[in-house]
């Protein structure tokens, strides 16, 4: 059924066959071994990202018999903590793919992008600043995404809702109608998987954010406090699922796919989950701009997961560069899109995707105007704390929670 969501070229569809790689070589066969630590984009053992990366590692070894790439896949919920532990213990991976934290560059642990990648100009330019420290790019965009409001057209029609909501009050009113008929009105994932994304989308809707235009931390700003108060009002009214702080994005994506949620903020990765559930047809799902306090906002969250190359003992730069040049080929970028419906990290792959995939083309076109997470050394700690405690801001005193996170941000800057 997934093919009905996509209008892709035959060449792109054929890339799904990449999973059948060669037999992994033993360390004894290679003069150099690279350690590659990656976040897992899969939903379970059957579709873990290990398969995708092992295919590239095997293909690369076949072309470069003197280099073996050892792949370690880590669940997204544990990725940041485990990589930080490796760094603290000086057990540096050679390459990571997942989050990028500028504090590693600040500490002199990373290679510049231009040191380990032949064509850095092909990396999507909108994410260059986010992957940089002091004006130098260290993080290489690998996979990207943009957000939109997804809504169930069948539920909307059954409840007499004719258009997607553009304001918070419209979201609340529509959610109340949906909830009255036994469905979840608005899915609000504030659990540890990706609470920082959902929170930012709501902050943007009130002219807020994590930092202002000058880079000053404003997590506990009046706009953000007002936003959390409104979200609390919705939760208390039953417009969302109970206890949003315990709900992860993936959990709610699955419920949306099962037809149990009227609307929620989402990304293209929601589409295969809807398809797998086999409850909703493509024509049953609509997308719209993110709703704001007074109207739909002209911004969206653009998320980029980065590759970073650690210097270690400084002896593997050439091998790292050879591997990254290989792994960033369009065919592998598009294979990742085909597997997980994320967007590419390179301009060449994005251009190819927009030409061949009518469903994903609008998201690709939205990326240049996307808002991104703070490019600040303290973001690693701030992000983790948001994931852990932002759910408790749904309550009588959201300001105290935002004050706590603000203090963490200021201490790390």
Tags for this entry?
single chain; D-Maltodextrin-Binding Protein, domain 2; 4-stranded mixed beta sheet; 12 strands; globular
What's the quick description here?
The longest helix is centred in the first third of the chain and has 15 residues, at 49-63. The protein has 413 residues and is α/β, with parallel strands linked by helices. Helix 2 (49-63) links the parallel strand 1 (32-40) and strand 2.
Oligomer: single chain
Structural class: alpha/beta
Q: How would you sum up the major sheet?
A: 6 strands, mixed
Shape assignment: globular
Whole-number count of domains: 2
Helix content: 40-55%
Percent in strands: 15-25%
CATH topology term of the largest domain: D-Maltodextrin-Binding Protein, domain 2
CATH architecture of the largest domain: 3-Layer(aba) Sandwich
The parts where pLDDT drops under 50 for at least 5 residues are: 7-30
Give the class-level CATH name of the largest domain. Answer: Alpha Beta
CATH superfamily of the largest domain: Periplasmic binding protein-like II
Instruction: Supply Rg.
Output: 21 Å
User: What is the residue-averaged pLDDT?
Assistant: 91
| DSSP summary, beta strand count | 12
Order of SSEs: HEHEHEHHEEEEHHEHHHEHEEHHEHHHH
Strands, helices and their partners?
Layout: H1 10-14, E1 32-40, H2 49-63, E2 67-75, H3 76-88, E3 95-98, H4 102-106, H5 113-116, E4 132-133, E5 136-137, E6 140-146, E7 148-152, H6 153-158, H7 168-180, E8 184-187, H8 195-204, H9 222-236, H10 249-257, E9 261-266, H11 270-277, E10 285-288, E11 302-309, H12 317-327, H13 330-340, E12 343-344, H14 347-356, H15 361-366, H16 379-389, H17 398-412
Parallel strand pairs: 1-2, 1-3, 8-9
Antiparallel strand pairs: 3-11, 4-5, 6-11, 6-12, 7-9, 7-10
Helix pairs in contact: 10-11, 13-14, 16-17
């Amino acid at each position: 059924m997934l093919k009905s969501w996509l209008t892709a070229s035959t060449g792109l569809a054929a890339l799904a066959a990449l999973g059948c790689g060669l037999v992994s070589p033993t360390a004894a066969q290679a003069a150099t071994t690279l350690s590659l630590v990656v976040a897992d984009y899969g939903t379970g053992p059957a579709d873990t990202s290990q398969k995708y990366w092992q295919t590239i590692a095997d293909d690369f070894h076949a072309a470069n018999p003197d280099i073996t790439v050892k792949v370690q896949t880590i669940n997204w919920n544990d990725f940041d903590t485990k990589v930080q532990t490796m760094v603290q213990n000086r057990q540096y991976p050679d390459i990571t793919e997942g989050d990028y934290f500028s504090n590693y560059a600040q500490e002199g642990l990373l290679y510049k992008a231009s040191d380990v990648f032949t064509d850095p100009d092909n990396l999507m330019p909108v994410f260059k600043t986010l992957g940089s420290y002091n004006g130098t790019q260290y993080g290489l965009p690998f996979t990207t995404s943009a957000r939109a409001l997804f809504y169930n057209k069948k539920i909307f029609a059954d409840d007499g809702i004719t258009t997607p909501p553009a304001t918070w009050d419209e979201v609340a009113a529509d959610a109340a109608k949906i909830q009255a008929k036994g469905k979840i009105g608005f899915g609000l994932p504030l659990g540890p998987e990706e609470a920082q994304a959902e929170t930012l989308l709501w902050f943007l809707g009130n002219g807020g954010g994590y930092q202002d235009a000058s880079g000053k931390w404003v997590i506990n700003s009046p706009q953000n406090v007002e936003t959390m108060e409104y979200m609390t009002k919705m939760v208390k009214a039953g417009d969302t699922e109970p206890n949003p702080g315990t709900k992860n994005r993936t959990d709610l994506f699955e419920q949306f796919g099962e037809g149990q949620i009227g609307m929620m903020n989402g990304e293209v990765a929601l589409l295969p989950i809807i398809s797998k559930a086999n409850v909703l047809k493509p024509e049953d799902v609509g997308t719209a701009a993110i709703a704001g306090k007074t109207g739909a906002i002209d911004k969206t969250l653009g998320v980029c997961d980065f590759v970073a190359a650690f210097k270690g003992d400084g002896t593997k730069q050439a091998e790292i560069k050879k591997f990254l040049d290989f792994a960033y080929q369009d065919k592998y970028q598009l294979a990742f899109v085909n597997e997980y419906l994320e967007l590419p990290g390179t301009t060449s792959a994005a251009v190819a995707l927009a030409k061949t995939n009518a469903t994903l083309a609008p998201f690709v076109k939205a990326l240049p105007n996307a808002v991104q997470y703070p490019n600040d050394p303290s973001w690693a700690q701030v992000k983790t704390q948001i994931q852990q405690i932002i759910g408790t801001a749904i309550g009588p005193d959201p300001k105290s929670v935002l004050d706590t996170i603000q203090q963490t941000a200021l201490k790390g800057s």
